[in-house]
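We give the chain.
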Amino acid sequence: MSDEIETGVIRVNAIQPEASIIEYATGILRTGNVVAFPTETVYGLGADVFQPAALERIFVAKGRPHSDPLIAHIADEASLEQLTTALSDEAKRLVAAFWPGPLTLILPRSPRVPHLATAGLETVAVRMPRHAVAQALIRALGSPIAAPSANRFMHVSPTTAQHVLADLAGRVPLILDGGSCEVGVESTVLDLCSEQPTILRPGGVSLEALRAVVPDVQPPPPRYRKADESDQLAAQPSPGQMLTHYAPAVPLLLYDGNVESMRSAMLAELRQRQ
């Protein structure tokens, strides 16, 4: 494992994580540092949720504004007592139906949770990942792990360890390589602190699946304003609320017309770029 440690990337069994690797990563987290690790959705950049100095390392590594909250990841339902002051009947039904899995719930914040993790709001985002590496890491630490996606702010979320390395090389001490993520998109974020349960970020659990458990779940509200600096300064109840969030760097070109005209337009564009 020593050669891997020098590169900052350690391969870990995604089904039965090696205890020695998990303990090594946990040691880094205990000292107040960050570790990138796989979940079933995307790779996360994690720190102990109860260590504000460690949380600050997440924001620094990603170049993320403090107005963008973090998601607290847990390994069992008992850990909810550390993070929230109340769990509604709706929340209990959703937990039973979708956890562990790609669903994040916005719940009332416990006083134990640092405001740094919640963008200063009195709500906290919580989910229980089902990936074995994420579960093992949380259990070994004995504390919820706050983790946004392991990429620079506004960049596309990583689904492999190599994506993380390409974006955060030199910014994080350890990346656990558990292979490609199964779901490949972020978790769905459902706000249970609003008048009606409302999806704030679409993701791995569909609106239809949520409504099968809680019929009055509302779709994401429309967002028409162009994202600007003021958007980044305003506290957000959930990650992924800015219009340019997760935006790819590669231009997207749309062509209209019959097949021949579109082919000619694409070839002309290609020649122009060569």
Observations:
- The mean pLDDT is 91.
- The first helix runs from residue 2 to 7.
- The chain has ten helices and ten strands.
